[in-house]
Specification:
The complex is a heterodimer of chains A (155) and B (178). Chain A is mostly helical. In chain A, 72% of the residues lie in helices and 0% in strands. Chain B is globular. Classes of the chains: A mainly alpha (155), B mainly alpha (178). At the A-B interface, helix 2, helix 4, helix 5 and helix 6 of A face helix 3, helix 7 and helix 8 of B. Chain A: It is found in: Cell membrane.
Chain lengths: 155, 178
């Protein structure tokens, strides 16, 4: 799981059992909290942006605990970009749906379902959350990459 | 009590900002910057803007700190014993002049919680506050404005984040793997 630093120049990654155990325990709670903030944005402070950042932090924590390279290989290069793209696409689809149904852009009431506005806003928040968490994850991996190339000179 | 807390908070924020600027060790600077962000996020809560406070705490104190730390991991620590950066007098004068010019706008702002500020008397604000729940069915007016009344703006922001993010990912990935 954490053999990313074997036979390699020193990196900022320390293979600490304390950090690993802590991250393993708190990750589900942080994820739940992120989703809570995302969905609860309609009724109290919070929303897609804040929740998305919190969900994105999970990958940062995993990277800190288990090695960034390992986490990157586990997540894969396509997931962050896919998250961002599908978030924007979902937002645009939710927004233009009412136009097709004869309303104006983002006019949730055009969807003929109960509490259309409420659910529409929740979905938009979720889409924003996808975008933000994807960007946070992608930035983290891209900025952290290249570390092993330069590690020897810095340490 | 509240006032004393606010003053202590402002002193903390300004102090950590100064420490960020003056420390010679970049690692120390980043830690001080994270403390500064945390202080600012509490300032937002004092100003009754918990949404902004949550964002500042998550992005400013959390993610940005990690990204900065990853970046400086690729640099070398400065040699020498000094802990405080030597201040360039010219830069100091320009900075103080700039801050003074910006500070003149502070006097144009209404006092915090004033009943005559534009926020309270503005028709648009009052319309949002009165009709947000009946029209959008969400309790948080900030969310109602963000995702319903100004939804098109938010879509624009989302697309800006998307294009900026994808652009950065493309450029950096190219540099990393070539």
């Amino acid at each position: 799981m954490s053999d990313s630093t074997d036979e390699r120049t020193p990196t900022p990654y320390v293979e600490s059992p304390i950090i690993m155990a802590t991250v393993r325990i708190i990750t589900p709670f942080v994820f739940t909290f992120g989703l809570f903030v995302m969905f609860h944005g309609a009724d109290s402070s919070g929303g897609g942006f804040q929740g998305g950042v919190i969900v994105g932090t999970i990958v940062l924590m995993l990277g800190m605990a288990f090695g960034i390279e390992t986490t990157r290989n586990w997540v894969g290069p396509k997931l962050p970009v896919g998250l961002v793209g599908s978030g924007v696409l979902a937002f645009i689809l939710i927004g233009t749906g009412p136009v097709l149904l004869g309303g104006s852009f983002l006019e949730y009431h055009a969807y003929e379902i109960h509490h259309a506005s409420k659910y529409g806003i929740e979905l938009v928040e979720l889409a924003i959350g996808l975008i933000v968490s994807g960007i946070v994850t992608g930035l983290f991996f891209v900025i952290a990459s290249g570390m092993e190339d330069n590690g020897g000179e810095t340490a | 009590m509240n006032e004393a807390l606010e003053i202590a908070l402002l002193v903390f924020v300004v102090g950590s900002a100064l420490v960020t600027a003056l420390l010679r060790d970049v690692l120390g600077s980043i830690i001080a910057f994270s403390a500064y962000s945390l202080g600012i996020s509490i300032v937002w809560v004092f100003l009754r803007a918990p949404d902004v406070g949550l964002t500042e705490a998550a992005v400013g104190a959390g993610v940005i700190t990690v990204l900065f730390l990853l970046t400086i991991a690729k640099t070398v620590r400065p040699t020498g014993e000094r802990t405080v950066e030597r201040v360039n007098p010219g830069a100091l004068i320009i900075t103080i002049a700039f801050v003074a010019v910006l500070s003149t706008t502070v006097f144009a702002l209404p006092p915090v919680g004033s009943s005559e500020s534009a926020v309270v008397t503005d028709n648009v604000t009052n319309y949002y506050l009165e009709n947000a729940y009946t029209e959008t069915e969400v309790n948080n007016v900030v969310t109602a404005v963000l995702a319903a009344y100004r939804g098109f703006d938010t879509l624009g922001e989302a697309v800006v984040v998307y294009s900026a993010g994808v652009g950065i990912l493309l450029v950096l990935q190219k540099e990393v793997f070539e």
